[in-house]
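S.,

As promised, the adenosine-5'-diphosphate run. Input:
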Amino acid sequence: MGEEAPEHLLNSLDGHLPVACDSESKDYQTSTIVDDKTYVVEGSEDGGKSWINVKIFDNLTRSWLIPTVLGMKPVQLKGHSTLLLNNGRILIVKKDYPLDDCIWFLEVDTPFVKEQKKLLGTEVVAWSKGVIGSAPKPIVISGPSGVGKGTLINKLMKEFPSKYGFSVSHTTRAPREKELDGVHYHFTERSLMEKDIRDGKFLEFASVHGNLYGTSIEAVEAVTDSGKRCILDIDVQGARSVRASSLDAIFIFICPPSFEELEERLRARATETEEQVQKRLRNARAELDEGRSPGLFDHILVNDDLETCYETLKKLLASDENANTLNQPTTKNLKVHVSHMESRADQKILLHCGTNGTGVKVPSLFMLDISSLKGGAPGRTRGLNVYTVESLRDGVNRIKQL
Ligand code: ADP
Ligand code: 5GP
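Predicted complex:
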């Protein structure tokens, strides 16, 4: 049953500016009109029991709609400012947070949200954290079981521990000897994993050799947030799903020199029962065919001699290396208190800041460039560029990239 929007709320809806919040009770609420709907973001920071909620007021039927909320939402808000962008996103800037943790997007009409609305049959909104700069592209590695994916990945991680990080998947299969929970996999129960999948926590998942495997959004973002390049070891179905997602990755398929050699490696590893080996070998034939399907993988490597294959892998990763780094220390200590935002026609947004109460002097005007956004829900939104704007004499501004 819908509920009418309170009159004071409807009167104050202007589509762009935040509605004043009750600073005494630390409650906050903003309303943003998008076509026939008003998106209300509200919450409280009450005695550690903080909550954030999104609801939608349908201005045609004059009733409240409770949307399915996907993506990772901000852990805390002490108030925020909103601005409707013209690409189905509402920009949400948290108050009194460092610049690298204050820019968020609430997607209300992006392709991802549209697709989820169709799938779920409900209203959908999706949170996505904004990240300044671009992260290096994650690396998806696929190939049949026993081909040597794990061996190659381990070599990379060992040689470049500060450069590459492994995306720890979830699986319902039992741990092998020496496999550690949270390191090799998050070993989990099917019902729990299915619930998390329904709650939109997974970037991709697939049934592989009779068990459920999946990459959580958190697994990829944890690696990327640490400034490392994320490596995903997933099957071909998973690679296909990631290709279709908003994650901009590089896709590598590893082939064995022959089917006989694959069988030999799988048996020599001695980690599976005979029945499981048979199942993995049956699936390998289909995977080898799939791996060659046009447009799915960017590179196909044959793992014949391990060292030769490893050198080729390193070379192709180096040539694809993205010069941008994710963590920009200059933004970490800039705690900003955005008082209002102004949109310019050229995809630049001016963030006007008041004093942040910390006593540390920060610039009062920033410019946010959103012309090169990448990614988005259910993961992070990257490609944001931030500049400080300093007023000099005679109306001249000095603009400096952070
Ligand atoms: P995957 O992760 O693809 O299932 P693994 O990395 O576990 O495969 O490798 C399977 C087995 O094959 C392991 O015992 C590993 O030591 C061995 N192996 C990996 N690459 C080679 C290679 N190029 N030549 C011979 N054996 C290999
Ligand atoms: P294993 O049981 O040998 O560790 O893995 C079996 C297969 O599952 C491998 O092909 C591996 O790439 C794949 N796999 C591991 N994690 C994931 C995941 O998160 N998603 C998908 N789709 N496949 C995965």
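Residues 143, 145-151, 265, 268-269, 303, 306 surround adenosine-5'-diphosphate (ligand 1) (CB under 6 Å). The longest strand covers residues 381-391.

- D.
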